[in-house]
Design brief:
single chain, bacterial flagellum biogenesis, chaperone, FliS_sf, Flagellar secretion chaperone FliS
């Protein structure tokens, strides 16, 4: 492992250790987006094995996002997000099988939209956690 990879691994581990639940979800969104972008580059370079590994990791991350859904508190929104995550996973698989960067771009757009919404509620989420801790 080179120095840059070692730094990135330590930096990622530190971010995860120090992260609140809201920040962990942000890190997952960032990780999925990063893996898909890297997979697009591997696809263009005709490194299909590398592309496949990166897309598998992105699909695992999306599965992780799905596992955080709270259907009791989230209700209909959680159900809609679950369906969206399922669609993203299937679209990534199709994009990988057909080497179709447009499919990857479609999922990137969806992830960025959901991530933007999640980022937009950061202060509200942190405020709610502080209030719960005070009770």
């Amino acid at each position: 492992m080179n120095g840059l990879q070692a730094y990135q691994r330590v930096n990622t581990q530190t971010s995860i250790t120090d992260a609140d639940p809201h920040k962990l979800i942000q890190l997952l969104y960032n990780g999925a987006i990063e893996r898909i972008n890297m997979a697009k580059a591997r696809m263009q370079a005709k490194d299909y094995a590398g592309k496949g590994q990166l897309l598998n990791k992105a699909i695992e991350i999306i599965g992780g996002l799905r596992s955080f859904l709270d259907f009791e508190k989230g209700g209909e929104l959680s159900a809609q997000l679950e369906a969206l995550y399922d669609y993203m996973e299937r679209t990534l698989l199709e994009g990988s099988a057909k080497n179709d960067p447009a499919k990857l771009d479609e999922v990137l757009g969806l992830l960025r939209t959901v991530k933007d919404g999640w980022d937009g509620i950061r202060q509200e989420a942190i405020g709610g956690q502080a209030q719960q801790a005070a009770v």
